[in-house]
Every structure is written in structure tokens, then in C-alpha cells.
Design goal:
The protein is elongated and about 70 Å long. With 237 residues, the protein is an alpha+beta fold. Strand 3 and strand 4 form a beta hairpin. The chain has a single domain, classed as Pnp Oxidase, Chain A (Roll), CATH 2.30.110. It has a six-stranded antiparallel β-barrel, surrounded by four helices. Helix 5 runs antiparallel to helix 6.
Length: 237
Amino acid sequence: MFRGRSKPPGRGTGSGGPRRVARKLTDVYLPKHFAARDRAAVEAFVDGVGAADLVTFDGTKPIASLIPVIWDRSGDTGPGRLLGHLALQNPQWRSVAPDTLALAIVHGPQAYVSPGWYPSTARHGKVVPTWNYVSVHFTGPVTIHRDAEWLREVVGRLTTRHEAGRPAPWHVSDAPPDFIDGQLRAIVGVEMAITTVEAKEKLSQNRDAEDRAGALDGLRHEPGPGAAAIADLMQQR
């Protein structure tokens, strides 16, 4: 787990004024043995997933939307910014006032872990099922952007990232300019000034070596991509 404060950001297009550095919105339950401390690995994980659940409060209830994101770490201090966009027709952004605190959750693979896989089950039976997973929580104040050039830059960066490495990558400039202009008018930009990053890897670190090996073998024989991905992460760690 790593925490930090970003430098106070300036005015955003939709902010209506300068934003203050926010207090942390919430704490994720994070026992020390499940905290991910390798900053480079956490950055690579978030970059690889490329999307987050943006959670805000509309005054009555929590609301959430899955949005594409870039973790912008280009600043000289602090944990950086999350940049993304929402559909204009999505009502969530209309309840985001200046300095609204938000939570963004980046999900990784997850899988059920059966106590039947542990050798310790036969020895003492004091075991229960559990769930292994990887996730990163970002918190911070959010600004909404309507400026076309801001949106064009973020959309361009998102496209470049996901098209990179393809035999014939698509570029925003490949589409007619008036068409792109219309598409940009149909979205709003989202910028989170990150104040806290909490990364969690629950990969059976609290079990002994025999139980971890049993869980790893059990996951290798489970159907579906989640179990295989969790097994790979356990093997790497």
C-alpha cells in the first residue's frame, strides 16, 4: 500500500473554481500481509486493466459507472491523476460538484478458494472457504470537463494506448473530423486528483507453504479464466 498527496490542482474546465487537496474518502480493509507494496507492479496492473468503477454520491445514494481510465503519473510529485470520460447522457456526472470526493476501483482477477485444497484440513479441520483477488482503490476529488480539446487529448491517449501493438492501429484522425466532433460532444471528461492509492493482493499469503501449494494446485484444475489468473499471480508472488 502506498499513500500520498497530490499537489493542489488548478482550475478545471468544469470545476467552477480551484480545488483543495482532499482528505481521504474511505479506508479499504487491508491487512498488512495483503498490501501490495511494489509500486511498479501496481502501476503495471492498473495500466493493463485500463478501466475503473467510478463511485460517487448523488445526495441520495451511491452511484457507479465503469469508465476507461489512464493513470497519469507525469507530474513531479504525488500519486498523479486518473483521467477518463462518461457519456453525456449518464446522469452521474451532473451530481459531481466541485471538490466532490470519489472512489475509483480497478478490479483484477478473482477466484473462490476451497478449504478442501488445504492439507491442514485433514490435520485439524480449522479452515473456511475464502476468495482471492487483486484490486486497487483510488480516492480523491473529481472535476468534470466539457472542453472539446481536453476531451480530444484524453480520447486520443486512450486510443493510442489500446491500439498500440496492433498490425494496423486505428487513430482518432482516421475518422472524419466532424464525426469526431460530434462524438466528443456526447461525452464528458473525468479527472480525479489522486490523494490515496490502496492496492490489495489477497493471494493466500496468510496460509502456510503447504496450504498455499494446495490452493495453487486446486486453482489450476478449476474452470474459467479467473482461477487460472489467480494461480498465475500466486505463482509469481
